[in-house]
Design goal:
By secondary structure, the chain is of the alpha+beta class. It contains 4 helices and 6 strands. A hairpin with a 2-residue loop joins strand 2 and strand 3. It is rod-shaped, with a radius of gyration of 32 Å.
Length: 208
């Protein structure tokens, strides 16, 4: 009986020693920490990078709208070809972003002379996917901020619109693979500017 108790005691001591040795072992801690921390750090890095790129692209979209409005407002008259040239030149400011196309719309607006004051389209062109075409129909009522509703005023409105595609969902099937929701699929960006003509009271477009 005493021999059995001695064997059990030795076994218990041996198990206790092995448990203490296991608890004191530190050789795998660094590898475990690396495996846990690196995916989190990489995720934060890519999210930060994507957020910075989105902010920069949004700023460029606003700059395009401002630049187009300014260039058109400086002209005494326009043609479709001249509008296309201005839009193509301004679109280049969006580079190197190329994951989705930019739509640029220029609309000439005449505010009515009599009450109720409202904006009416004189001509309107949109440039998207490398093509320029008619946008709003002439004579149609269009939105004008209340602060700009001055009787008889002529305005140039330039708009730039972009559906921003995050890099992480740009590749086919990436959104499904990452389990992302549709909210991250496309982020709408846009800006609108109103300017008055610089050289003449109005800016006609002969072939719009």
């Amino acid at each position: 009986m005493a021999a059995v108790n001695t064997k059990m005691l030795r076994l218990g001591l041996r198990i206790a020693q092995q448990l203490r040795a296991f608890a004191a072992e530190r050789r795998g801690v660094a590898a475990l920490e690396f495996a846990l921390v690196v995916p989190l750090m990489l995720g934060l890095y890519f999210l930060t990078m994507e957020f910075s790129q989105a902010l920069e692209t949004n700023s460029k979209v606003s700059r395009v709208a401002s630049q187009v409005a300014d260039l058109v407002a400086q002209q005494p008259a326009m043609t479709v070809g001249e509008l296309r040239g201005i839009m193509e030149l301004s679109e280049a400011a969006l580079q190197p972003y190329r994951r989705s196309g930019l739509a640029i719309t220029v609309t000439a607006i005449q505010v009515t002379f009599a009450a109720p004051l409202e904006g009416r389209v004189v001509w309107s062109q949109v440039f998207a996917d490398g093509q320029i075409r008619d946008a709003e129909q002439p004579g149609r009522r269009t939105e004008v901020p209340e602060s700009l509703l001055v009787p008889g005023i002529f305005l140039i409105r330039a708009e730039a619109r972009l559906h921003y595609l995050p890099l992480i969902v740009w590749a086919a099937g990436a959104k499904d693979a990452l389990g992302l929701t549709a909210a991250f699929d496309q982020i709408s960006m846009g800006e609108r500017y109103y300017l008055r003509p610089r050289q003449t009271p109005t800016i006609p477009c002969s072939d719009c």
